[in-house]
Amino acid sequence: MKKTIMTHARMLFFVSAMMGGLFSNSVMAKSFIIKNGRPQAEIIIAENPPRAVKLAAAELQQYLEKISGAKLLVTNLVDRAIPVKIYVGKSRYTDELKLSDEGLKYGAFKLVSGKNWLALLGHDQDYKARDNFIGNEKGRPKFYEKWDALTGGTWSNPINTDEYSSAVKMSAFDERGSLNAVYEFLRGLGVRWYFPGELGEVVPTLKSIAVPHLDKTVCPDFQLRHIYIYYQDFMRGSKDYVMWQLRMGLSQRDGFGGGHGLINVHNRDKSQPDYFALYNGKRQTDAAFGQGFPCFSSDHLVDATVKYCRAVFSIYPDEQILSIAPVDGYGSLCECALCKGKATRQRGWNGMLSDYVWNFMDRVSKEVYKACPDRKLSCLAYSVYQLPPEKIDKLSPNVEVILCQWRSEFYNKETREQFKKLTEAWLEKLPSKDLFIWDYYLHNRAEGPWVGVPVYYPRVIAENLRFLKGKSRGEFIEVFQNAKPKEIPWDAMAANHLNIYITSRLYWDANQDVDALLADFYEKFYGPAAKEMKAFIEYAEAHWITANKDVAVIDRLFELLAAAKKAAGDTVYGKRVDLLVAYMERLKAVREKLAQGREKDLPKAQALERDRKDIKLDGKLDDKFWEGLEDRPLADVETAKPPVAKTSFRVGWAENALYFGIRCEDSDMNHLYIAATENKDANLFNGDNIELWLETPVHSLYQIGVSPSGAIFDMDRQGRKFNSSWSSGVEAAAYRGDGFWSLELRVPVAGENAEAIDALNGIAGAKPAGAAPWYFNLCRQRVRDKSIELSAFSPTGKKLFDVPAKFAELIVK
């Protein structure tokens, strides 16, 4: 039997031929599955088929009936009186036809036909849950008594579930190639699943369906295709959501180690203090919600991690990979003597701990490799260790890297090219070439900067997946959904379902024409409103990045959506448009706020002009420059009441720069927590510090942290990113007196001419003026023992400084 891989061109022919009537009217076809609304075929499965095959046969039966009205019999015995046979999954009948599932990995499948038969075949196998996993919380103490005896350690068990869905009676880990084959066949007939549930499906009407002429093998371009939907994941999701994941051809677990697995080594055993990072003289055993932040110089932690990995691999012979990535939220160098000097701050935020973290990863991996050369260990390339290490030429051959990215940010060419280089750089470090992607489709969250904004980026998705084909082995994508979607008036999937659908299709063929996929979507999902919805989505795709701060963009989005709703009418297409109508209702409040401007009664500050000759930056605040400038106090960031430790500041202007003079009262200067003494040391944010947040008319926003030592950590936070490659050019001087410490800052202003501004240096903006003010907040963090006091010039009402809507106004007089 001839085997071929389905190319892009053949796929287009296959789909267009089917939709043009190949299944029903082809003169070449001599037999029919359904003819004139009557069944001509039966669905044949094995006598004891895997769960996925049972579901595949049921899905085929159900949708053929929806399409034609004819219900085919599902059986494991051939009836010679029925002319056409559809073989689903491996059986003795496919064996007789010499059809094999050999080599069909990662959900791949075959579509093969003969004169009066059709075979839809992939590799299918029920996942068998391991004996030693935690079934529920009640079983934990008893389980761990046994587990600790088995492992010889005090570690958590990383294998705590088999991801079984009671909604569909399957495990997420079941092999289900034949189910993918059935869905591909149905897609060829015109069936689509764009959105969870009946509202999201499109089913054509066909009275006759011919046996097609097929002989092809379809393999995915990405082995891991895991789109993780909050509260609707495979194990906990409703039937509609789990079926949607199956119908999109998704998968999980294939060669993927997951994230933050190192917590399994240290979160149960707090008796080894050197496992944990040292901050302000205290080991961080209870950080990160009790999980603890690790010290990566600890030989004891290295040894324990090696023993843990070997024990898990010994107990679970079929477990191929383990994660030893740090806990989520980890981001500061341990302050113990062993860790001193191990940061690489010159590499910026996303590389400052790369060599430090990856050295630990490599040490552990090499030792595990000696005993278990056929197993792998994974770590995230994330946060402050996203860049590849510079001091390691090649990582151990058993290392898997999971590179974290926000694909939506790739609308920016500079960011897109930066991540391409980053991907290539990681592949150079990996002898195994085991690179995966961790992404975030989270703009649809209930809170945050994009509330109510319809965020679409299908072309960005397509461009990135074409680049990643052959480089990345697959992806894990976080997708937001509310915990109780039925109890809210809007659906988080209203816009995001299209990004998810396009991604799932491109996982199977990254070279597909995304415009053809979109045209098919507009026509089938929106019917009479196809033209209007195309205009709406394309406008949103081009403008979503500014939709949360531009009234004109918001107005245009509502105008285009209203036109689509009118065209769709009171139909199923109208109900689909209504999803967006409800979702965008919250955007009206954003528009109203933008139209009204900033919140009323927020603090204001005037910087008076001064002569630069009148100041010497020494942190003492005793120069003529500061005379006559108003002393402005900070208040508790949540309550707006006077804080225990009082802080005040003055602000002036001289020669294209703002000057801030800040005095921080402190009755306990002996325990001042100076967490950083060098620039670009992120530990600064663990200790006592001042933070200056700036939003100019041309840029939003900047964050500048200053330690009592005068060390600076500055970041461009535009788009909520952490771009520490940017430099503010701020000069800082610090002084410590009796019962206080003080700072003098010079903040240079680069101007507002975008062409003249160096994106990596200086603060973009002209001198703050009445017609074009800046917005800012000046904040203080004071750390003593377990107590942290936060204060701000403009209280935010939260334990956060990063609330731009609460920023004070700043002008120069």
Q: Main traits of this protein?
A:
single chain, 813 residues, alpha/beta, 19 helices, globular
Could you characterize what this model shows?
The strands form eight sheets. Strands 24, 25, 26, 27, 28, 29, 30, 31, 32, 33, 34, 35, 36 and 37 form a 14-stranded mixed sheet that branches. Strands 4-3-5-7-6-15 form a six-stranded mixed sheet. 28% of the residues lie in helices and 22% in strands. The protein is globular, with a radius of gyration of 30 Å. It has 813 residues and is an alpha/beta fold. Helix 3 (51-68) runs parallel beside helix 6 (177-188), helix 10 crosses helix 11 and helix 16 packs antiparallel against helix 17 (551-568).
The fraction of residues assigned to DSSP E strands is 15-25%
Percent range for helical residues?
Answer: 25-40%
Alpha carbon gyration radius: 30 Å
Q: Give a quick account of the main beta sheet: strands, pairing sense, barrel closure.
A: 14 strands, mixed
| Mean of pLDDT | 92
> How far apart are the first and last residues' alpha carbons, in Å?
84 Å
Poorly predicted spans: 1-29
Structural class: alpha/beta
Count of discrete alpha- or pi-helical segments spanning 4 or more residues: 19
Could you tell me the number of beta strands? 37
Rough outline: globular
